[in-house]
Amino acid sequence: MARLGRLLALLFLLPNLAVAEMSVVPSIEVAESDGTIELVGKLTALTAASGVSAMMTVERRSSAGALNSSQGRTLDLAPNESASIASVALNMVEGQTLSARLVVRNDTGIIAQTVLILGGEEL
Predict the structure, then answer these.
(1) Could you give the C-alpha distances from 17 to 21, 22, 41, 53, 104, in angstroms and in order?
(2) Mapping DSSP to helix (H, G, I), strand (E, B) and coil, where does residue 20 land?
(3) Which residues of 103-116 are buried (b: 16+ CB within 10 A; e: fewer)?
(4) Residue 75: which H helix or E strand, with range?
(5) What string of DSSP letters covers 40-63?
(6) Dist CA 119 CA 95 (whole Å)
(7) DSSP class of residue 10?
(8) pTM of whole model > 0.85?
(9) CA 54 to CA 39: how far, in whole Å?
(10) What is the bridge-based pairing of β-strands 65-77 and 24-33?
(11) Ramachandran region of residue 3, left (φ > 0), alpha (ψ -120 to 50) or beta?
(12) Nearest to residue 100, comparing CAs of 59, 43, 51, 50?
């Protein structure tokens, strides 16, 4: 419960991410098949969003080293419209950590973001 309180307090400290100003909601979907993990970054518009730029960055760290990948695009969305921003498929490696961050910007700066971390190592 204390962790939820800290998260809510952090959200209130980020004025560019205030819910009243958010026009899009980013999400990162995860699918696993035969030892491969696929991460898909998506945006869903709450209201019309014009000139929204989204970038998904994925980092994989393991004892073998690190791999970084970034994909993004700029788009316009109608209310309730969803769009795929990026898709990355990676082979699973024992002891690896995957992190993905999807950041959404408009001409005023960051308007939304989401982070997904898979694995046990701290980043």
Answers:
(1) 7, 6, 18, 15, 10
(2) helix
(3) bbbbeeeebbbbeb
(4) strand 65-77
(5) EEEEEESS-EEEEEEEEEEEEEET
(6) 7
(7) H
(8) no
(9) 15
(10) unpaired
(11) alpha
(12) 59
The candidate with the shortest Cα–Cα distance to 111, out of 58, 42, 49, 57, is 49
Three-class SS state of 95? coil
Q: What is the pLDDT along the chain (123 residues), one digit of tens a residue?
A: 444 333 333 344 344 444 445 689 999 999 988 888 899 999 999 999 889 999 999 998 888 788 899 999 999 999 999 999 999 998 877 788 889 999 999 988 999 999 999 886 554
CA atoms of 87 and 39, how far apart (whole Å)? 6
The count of residues in the chain is 123
Q: State how far the Cα of 123 lies from the Cα of 121, in Å rounded to an integer.
A: 6
